[in-house]
Amino acid sequence: MKATDSTPRSDDSTADSSRSANSDPQGVLGAHSSEPDASQQLPASELLTLLNDDYVCEIIAALDAEPLSVRELVRECDLSRPTAYRRLNRLEDAGLVESTPYIGKNATRNTQYQLRLSTAEFRITAEGVAGDVALRGP
Fold first, then answer.
1. 114 beta partners
2. Which candidate, 44, 41, 33, places its Cα nearest to that of 123?
3. For the CA atoms of 121, 39, 32, 36, what is the dihedral angle to 10 degrees?
4. Which of 35, 52, 43 is nearest to 116 (CA)?
5. No. of helices (H) and no. of strands (E), the chain
6. What pLDDT is attached to residue 10?
7. Are strands 128-135 and 29-33 parallel, antiparallel or unpaired?
8. Is residue 69 very low, low, confident or very high in pLDDT (cuts 50, 70, 90)?
9. Is residue 53 included in any domain, yes or no?
10. CATH number of the domain to which 113 belongs
């Protein structure tokens, strides 16, 4: 999948912007899952910054269809490998993507990435931004 819109992509150097405490007055954006131990929490401002990245959105859209390896994501989303790995690391750190190792062709070790994000809901009030994230079970 290639971007069809002419919106400029987020620059890698600015995509790691610092967290803004004022954006999340309630402290955290709670993640909910069908798993009993899902206590992953992420500041709403950090999640919004992450989702504001065009590369991240392309990866999420591709992984929503099916789990993919980095090689497949690079081809499908027209990304460089370093860009794909950086975004996947951010998504995995946020708990929105899960990686699973597997043995591929010719007995090579590979990693497959699966989207855990099901829905994200944000509320914007006079006090700031808050919200909830629903994660898919295993």
1. 98
2. 44
3. 180
4. 35
5. 4, 7
6. 47
7. parallel
8. very high
9. yes
10. 1.10.10.10
- Counting the structural domains of the chain, the total is 1
For residue 111, give both structure tokens. Answer: 């990693």
Q: What is the pTM of this model?
A: 0.67
Is residue 32 a part of any domain in this protein? no
Secondary structure (3-state) at 124: strand
Q: Are strands 109-115 and 128-135 parallel, antiparallel or unpaired?
A: unpaired
pLDDT of amino acid 41: 63
Nearest-angstrom CA–CA distance, 108 and 110: 6
For 122, other C-beta atoms within 10 Å of its C-beta total 14
d(CA 109, CA 39): 30
Q: Tell me what pLDDT residue 21 has.
A: 35
- Taking each helix axis as running N to C, give the angle between helix 54-65 and helix 81-93, from 0 to 180 degrees, rounded to the nearest 10: 80
Closest alpha carbon to 116 in 93, 91, 135, 90: 135
Does residue 123 form part of some domain?
A: no
**CB-based contact 65:71 (threshold 8 Å):** no
Residue with tokens 């790995």: 85
On whether residue 9 sits in a domain, the answer given is: no
